[in-house]
Design a protein that fits this description.
With 418 residues, the protein is of the alpha+beta class. The protein has 13 helices and 10 strands.
Length: 418
């Protein structure tokens, strides 16, 4: 039987990770990412990438799309008192913000979240998780045995406190506990786009206003020629609109300005943005300006993003489940079955398919419709609206005769049991 470690009250109810200056050390498994090498400075690369509007919007889209699935607890073989205890913990009532911060693993490859527990003496002797704090990744390193360490003021410490730290690795492999950053695949498009911006800015600063160069002939030593060139330059700089000037021995005047147009720069930015869209979402039709595309292709690409987000939701689900298992063990002991935290990642029928099923007389749960299509159940019969154009055979009408626009299904966080 696995040896159990009793909880330490001081460690469990306080923050272990502080905001002291961080040191670095090299005696641990280095981060194999060729962009981020595990130092404090190198993580700034990914933070700079997140200042790009395209990258930030797509990463946020991927996070929110991964957390939009209905989520809740299934009881299974969990005792009723344990199930009700977990459901009534305030932290579990709305995990969206905490889960989204844990998804910084998409940015950096992994995330580490510290759990702060309430004092049992203040909660009828129960261990209640009160907060989940996701820490900066540069605080942490992994050993060759995948054990987690952190550094503070140049010292290193093994984080072996039980029930204290949740780890989330995004797309790890068997030899890489650091996971894989989503930003890694778009580093070069971002860098090329960034270099294009810098080049255009420098060119604009230098040549947006045309300059004049004077070609003249003169005999004499270098000092005399330089003096003459300076006087011509001063004269040209003093010219104003509508004024006139004459300069001896000047043969010709030339203008120096920018070549090309803003359209050339836009082509560069658009090309980089398309590659960024492919790298982060697996598609470009819905997130980039394209020259063509079809509805069928758009649906295929949307399905690719949907499947990717389902995998990310399962990663979050696994991390939250670990916290639930800790809570059950600390309060009810070993051998008690925990409630299962689940994202409902099954494909929902479209609203049109739902209406056809109702019209054909298929039995459908009203509560399921309300939960999965963003609709509020009526408070009572006086609060109920049924359109006259509804199908009487179904006993339920969700159409609005005054608005023929399609209703887009929406999803929300719910708690469900089976």
């Amino acid at each position: 039987m696995k040896k159990t470690i009793p909880p330490d009250t001081k460690t469990m109810t306080t923050q272990v990770i502080t905001d002291n200056m961080l040191g670095s050390f090299l005696n641990f498994m280095p981060n194999p990412d060729d962009i981020v090498s595990g130092t404090v400075e190198s993580y700034q690369t990914y933070r700079q990438m997140m200042t790009d509007p395209r990258i930030k919007s797509l990463i946020n889209k991927k996070k929110t799309s991964s957390l939009v699935f209905p989520a809740g607890f299934t009881q299974g073989d969990c005792p009723d008192n344990v199930f009700n205890f977990i459901k009534n913990i305030p932290l579990f009532d709305n995990l969206y913000r905490k889960e989204k911060r844990m998804l910084s693993a998409l940015n950096y490859g992994f995330s580490v979240s510290e759990i702060v527990w309430g004092l049992p003496a203040e909660n009828n002797g129960k261990w209640i998780p009160e907060n989940i704090i996701t820490r900066k990744p540069e605080r942490f390193y992994f050993g060759s045995d995948w054990k987690l360490y952190y550094t503070s003021l140049g010292t290193r410490k093994l984080l072996d406190q039980p029930y204290k730290f949740l780890q989330m690795q995004h797309d790890p492999d068997d030899e890489n506990p650091y996971g894989t950053s989503e930003l890694r695949s778009v580093y070069w498009p971002w860098m090329f786009k960034k270099a294009g911006y810098e080049f255009w800015l420098q060119a604009t600063e230098k040549f947006s206003v045309k300059s004049i160069i004077a070609l003249f002939e003169m005999e004499g030593d270098d000092e005399k020629i330089q003096s003459r060139a300076n006087s011509i330059a001063q004269m040209l700089m003093g010219l104003e609109s509508g004024s006139a000037a004459a300069a001896g021995n000047v043969k010709d005047l030339k203008e120096i300005g920018m070549a090309g147009s803003l359209a050339d720069f836009n082509t560069l930015v658009d090309a980089c943005d398309v590659q960024i869209s492919y790298g982060l979402t697996g598609q470009s039709i819905a997130t980039s300006k394209t020259d063509g595309g079809s509805l069928a292709l758009g649906e295929v690409q949307a399905d690719m993003l949907y499947e990717d987000c389902k995998g990310i939701a399962l990663e979050v689900q696994s991390a939250v489940q670990k916290l639930i298992d800790w809570t059950v063990y600390l309060n009810f002991g070993a051998g008690i079955v925990s409630p299962q935290y689940r994202f409902n990642i099954k494909n929902l029928a479209s609203f049109e398919q739902l209406m056809k099923a109702l019209a054909l007389g298929f039995p459908v749960s009203k509560q399921w419709i309300y939960d999965n299509y963003g609709m509020e159940p009526p408070k009572d019969t006086s609060d109920t609206f049924v359109a006259n154009s509804g199908n009487a055979e179904t006993g339920l009408s969700l159409s609005d005769p005054y608005n023929n626009k399609k209703k887009v299904p929406s999803r929300k966080m719910i708690k469900f049991s089976v």
